[in-house]
Specification:
Elements (H helix, E strand, L loop, with lengths): L2 H34 L8 H16 L3 H14 L4 H38 L4 E2 L2 E2 L1 H37 L1
Antiparallel strand pairs: 1-2
Helix pairs in contact: 2-3, 2-4, 3-4, 4-5
């Protein structure tokens, strides 16, 4: 055999070995990809839907923290229940919206009481500065700012829910 033939045979053997190694490594990667891309098991939707119903019932009785915890548990325990998770997004937004509305109502009541109290206070008593007047003025301003922030949160969640509903 001449040198060129031997070199050709060596290159061919090296190439064949490389192809076998490549196929050997490619097979487990392909199998893993196929397994990971399988559809979610149908039986995962039922318990997730039950948890979602529980969260909605908790929302109806205004138990916001329990409803939020139930939804977060649903997301952790049923990562493949896509339909339930999609519906849970709207439910969680509704929890946040209703909680913000309740907070806004409570803050508005406190703000109105603080304004009424402030309106009755004189800025000066016997020619001296009334410290209670200015303290109440700061309270009113802080409550007013809190109320504005809560109202912005309500507007955000109203818009977010509308956008999420349009996307479905």
């Amino acid at each position: 055999m001449d040198v060129e033939s031997e070199q050709f045979l060596q290159k061919r053997a090296t190439f064949a070995l490389a192809m076998k190694t490549k196929d050997f490594l490619l097979l487990p990667v392909a199998a893993l990809a196929i397994i990971s891309c399988q559809q979610a098991p149908a039986n995962d939707e039922a318990p997730a839907a039950a948890m979602l119903d529980e969260a909605r019932q908790l929302l109806a009785v205004r138990d916001y923290s329990a409803a939020r915890d139930t939804i977060l548990s649903l997301r952790r325990q049923h990562p493949t229940a896509l339909d339930a998770r999609r519906a849970a997004i709207l439910t969680l937004d509704s929890v946040e919206l209703m909680e913000a509305r309740d907070s806004a109502a409570a803050c508005e009541q406190r703000l109105q009481a603080a304004r009424d109290s402030f309106a009755q206070m004189p800025p000066r008593i016997d020619g001296h500065t009334n410290d209670a007047y200015y303290l109440q003025q700061r309270r009113v301003m802080a409550l007013d700012q809190s109320y504005d922030e809560i109202c912005a949160k309500v507007k955000f969640f109203v818009r977010k829910i509308d956008i999420d509903r349009q996307a479905d």
